[in-house]
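Can you give me the bound-state structure? Components:
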Amino acid sequence: MSTSELSATDLASDVCELPQARGPVTESLFKALVRSPGSMSDAVADQLFVDCPLFGEDTPLALYSLYELHYRGFLNVAEGWEWDSNCLELRRNLERAFIRQLRHEVKTLYGSVTVAPDDVVQALRELMTSAGPSLSTFMSVDGTPQHMREFGIHRSPYQGKEADPHTWAIPRLKGQSKAALVLIQFGEYGDGQTSKMHAELFSDALEAMGLERRCGAHLDAVPGASLSAVNLVSLFGLHRRWRGALIGHLALFEMCAVDLMSHQVDAMRRLGMDGAIPFYEAHVASDVAHERIALNEMVGGLLVDEPSLSDDVVFGARALDLIERKFAERLLSAWSVGESSLRRCEQQSPRDFQASAMTPMFFLT
Ligand SMILES: [Fe+2]
Ligand SMILES: [Fe+2]
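Here's the bound-state model for the whole set.
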């Protein structure tokens, strides 16, 4: 179904259709999802994966799509699929492959994780200051409108559900760490004002850049490696066993946000994309406080209650740092030779590139 065939209700709902398949796993999964729940064969759930669970295309998209059933879902996919046993079996197999690869990558880059509870904050600070190539610095100085739009499209699967994966940790914590997480999330959800919710501000930013405001509408253009950034936090969020990693992930996110978002504000201002600025400015305004709350109360409180989670907290932060390093390297490498960092997308929405000042963008694999 193309965007032009969607009804006004569909567009207003913010829920999008299934993306295009990228290989055998997504092909068989998507064929099943448009049928009735319960009709998926065991063979779909138990099939072998053909590419890298972190940096491939078919496997990350399959996992992303299964996680999406726990968020807003897809148009024409019945809600009953969320807890379908074969869906869960396929998701479990994909998660095992994802975690296996993630552990390998983290160990290769940082060595084995063993950090005492008292050393966790220092380990997080070291990650913050030893960041890889700075995408946001590049954007603030040399970024073009096309780079900004590509960046927005890469981020859209996460920003459309910004804060939601971390919210899953709330019932899994107690005391000070729980209260701190709720305080951070309250800010992410706009202090109770819909128009200030960060996910809403991001949709406003997409629109201001001349892009379709529904985040799911860009899925076909987003590479699997960028979807893995969302899969990472969804996996940590959906499993109580990974609550420590989820808290480490959020803490590093908050610690890095002010600098990153300040650079984006500079870039948007330099390029005259003023309508996109409120999203980035909202983070500059709130994340100084969020960083302090995240470190002192959320991480600190968690490690008082559950000191055995110290390695997991650092693992979650290292996993985020790893994914973001690879993300920055990939985008900067494509842009350095004048190529797009997005996937080829044959059926892009006509609204996607309607901004008059924009150079036509061609999606490259
Ligand atoms: Fe935010
Ligand atoms: Fe924040």
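A couple of observations. Residues 162, 188, 198, 283 surround fe (ii) ion (ligand 1) (CB under 6 Å). The domain at 115-353 is CATH 1.20.910.10 (Heme Oxygenase; Chain A).
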